[in-house]
């Protein structure tokens, strides 16, 4: 981790984000947009899978997975740029540490969903309920992403 912090702290990205008056605010806008796309998509998918939005066709809900991946990609790229601003500060921040840990767990949960439940969900008929395991994954997903958003807000104060 130290090598990455040193490398990114001396990279062109670090220079750009620190020297350009608009780079950091622009990356924050991209980061917030990515989060909105990611969480909006996951909210629709997870509420349907958990059984709280049975009026949505499961196959239609699954069509939002690429949007969630797009939002996550925007967050990954913009988050890396924001991190490069002051990597030592972020690494030492307890809120950032929690955020990264929760994102890692959410990623494992997403892999469980994709490889364990996704193929069965797209086969469900209109109004048919997901398996209990899929419902657990969906609820855990919502809890984890709400926690990520919450601890991210604390980063400025820790």
Automatic annotation (TrEMBL):
UniProt superkingdom: Bacteria
The answer to whether UniProt assigns keyword Transmembrane to this entry is yes
Q: Where are the transmembrane segments?
A: 22-44, 64-84, 96-115, 136-156
Q: Which UniProt keywords apply?
A: Membrane, Transmembrane, Transmembrane helix
Q: What's the protein name?
A: DUF2214 domain-containing protein
Q: Which organism is it from?
A: SAR86 cluster bacterium
Task: Give the classification, highest ranks.
Answer: Bacteria, Pseudomonadati, Pseudomonadota, Gammaproteobacteria, SAR86 cluster
